[in-house]
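Study this fold:
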Amino acid sequence: MAWRAVIILFLGLASAPAAAAEVRYVTDRLLLGLYEAPDASTKSQQTLVSGTPLEVLETTKHYARVRTPEGTEGWVKSAFLVAEEPPRLAFTRLQEEKQALDRHLQTTLKELEVAQKERARLAAELETTGTTVTKQSEQLSALERTNARYRARLNREQPTVPLYWALAGSVLALSVGAVVTQRVIDFRIRRRHGGFRIH
């Protein structure tokens, strides 16, 4: 029998932290008094509105010792505590979340519209650039073909002179140049000295 008592005691101690971690909500459409003792005849410390989350620290038959989100501890009637968030509070929270999501959606749609316009502008610019590049490539090809034709024509029409004729022409040109230069100098000297040649 003693071991049964030990097991029951152990189970009771093991379940104590779970009870301490419980969260309960003030039931819907209610103002609930928070008392210093488990007795409604004592003065209320605080009035809790519907939907206030309370951490349950201890429970008795009709009361529960709780802690508010601000850290205040006291006793409330456990009949007015529920395990689930009251529908009105949940509805208000969901409405706020929906409004936030709607705002986010509108912002995202505007950003998408701006991105689509920018994409269309870039596509048009790319098309224009591609057309310009194509035209410039065609013009370059045409110029290269024209240049090749001129080079071929120049090669065909270029006069070919034998090397000995080129050398003979150079010697003749130098000789004529020397004679002409000598005559010009002689003429200028005579003119300066009254027609006499001075050596």
Observations:
- The helical segments are 2-20, 87-157, 163-192.
- Residues 87-157 form the longest helix (71 residues).
- The first strand starts at residue 23 and ends at 26.
- Strands lie at 23-26, 31-35, 44-49, 53-59, 63-67, 73-77, 81-82.
